[in-house]
Amino acid sequence: MKDSGIDLSDAPEVTPEMFARAVVRRGLKEIKPRKVQLTVRVDRDVLDWYRSRGRGYQTHINALLRAFMEASRALTVQRTDSITEGASCRR
After folding, report:
1. 15 found inside a domain
2. Is 41 domain-assigned?
């Protein structure tokens, strides 16, 4: 069958706006956004310094925050382990 032989009289026309909002869901897992947009206040000189480093300054700031988060988590685990070890030694 050729395209010209297909009866489209009962099918609504798909507008570009409808197509832009379309989401394919069949067989695909939902993709969650990894990053969120937020507003944060920083000192002007800090922002100027990061911006002076060129493109990707927001990525650099994110990497610094991630490194701090991971180091803090590791420190928390170490503290918890040492508290647990100290409690088991007292028994």
Report:
1. no
2. no
Counting the structural domains of the chain, the total is: 1
Task: Output the CA angle 34-54-64, nearest 5 degrees.
Answer: 45
Look up the pTM and report it.
0.50
The answer for residues whose C-beta is within 8 angstroms of residue 35's C-beta and 6 or more apart is 62
Cα angle, residue 32 at apex, residues 29 and 35 outer, rounded to 5°: 155
| pLDDT digits 0-9 by tens, 18-67 | 888 877 677 777 777 688 899 999 999 999 999 999 999 999 999 999 99
59: nearest Cα among 27, 87, 34, 86: 34
